[in-house]
Design brief:
Strand order of the largest sheet: 1-2-3-16-15
CATH architecture of the largest domain: Roll
Structural class: mainly beta
Number of domains: 2
Number of strands: 20
Shape: globular
Largest sheet: 5 strands, mixed
CATH superfamily of the largest domain: SH3 Domains
Helix content: under 10%
Number of helices: 0
CATH class of the largest domain: Mainly Beta
């Protein structure tokens, strides 16, 4: 068994013999994706106290019954468009730099809450304001980042440990490599069920359900 590191992704090569496909194991980057920035920005702000949304009273008037409404299926509803870019919201992007400050609001005067520290990690844009984009990562952590920190080049995070990377979009296809959970891969084409991805010099197909950073119904040529 031979272990070696390639870039930010470590590969563990597993050699098999007659009748078995070769499989390489790629390990994710050891350092965390997100660093909490509270220690570097001074003392904590005093906590805020939220008032209840509804204050009960003894003489409250009951709310009248509302007419029944019919929900519009999501597939028929028009997509939301970003006011700055005219691109769909939400949408996936990737981190362009090794470090990206994540602020509480859309300006440099707002406090830094987090720092993303993994180049290429996928992010989801949920709002736009001027040169700022509100983003979240796979864990739902996020805030506002400057648009210069993100890229339209797509990537995904492997959500399934020891995920087989197949040579074609077929569950019975030969295995080109195996990816550990947390590995970041470049996103290529996608069918309704499969995506072709690349990581550490290896390329192959993986089930879309095992990846974060691509929409369930997204098709890419």
């Amino acid at each position: 068994m031979l272990g070696f590191r390639l870039g930010a992704v470590a590969l563990l090569v597993v050699a098999t013999f007659t009748g078995q496909a070769n499989a390489e194991v790629m390990r994710p980057q050891a350092r965390p994706d997100v660093v909490e920035a509270r220690a570097m920005i001074g003392p904590e702000m005093p906590p805020t106290v939220e008032l209840p949304a509804v204050v009960p009273t003894s003489n409250a008037v009951p709310e009248p019954e509302r007419e029944e409404t019919v929900a519009i299926p999501t597939s028929l509803a028009p997509p939301e468009i970003g006011p700055e870019t005219n691109l769909p919201l939400p949408r996936f992007v990737s981190l362009k730099t090794d470090e990206g400050n994540v602020r509480r609001g859309p300006s440099l005067s707002h406090r830094i809450d987090w720092v993303f520290v993994r180049r290429g990690m996928p992010l989801q844009v949920t709002a736009e304001y001027g040169h700022w984009r509100r983003v979240i990562d796979r864990e739902g952590i996020g805030g506002w980042v400057h648009y210069a920190l993100i890229s339209g080049n797509r990537s995904v995070i492997v959500d399934e440990d020891m995920l087989p990377l197949l040579r074609r979009p077929d569950a019975d296809a030969p295995v080109a490599a195996q990816l550990e959970a947390g590995v970041i891969a470049r996103l290529d084409e996608c069918t309704i069920d499969w995506c072709r991805i690349a990581a550490g010099g290896y390329r192959g197909w993986a089930p879309k359900t095992a990846l974060w950073g691509v929409e369930p119904d997204e098709i890419r040529d």
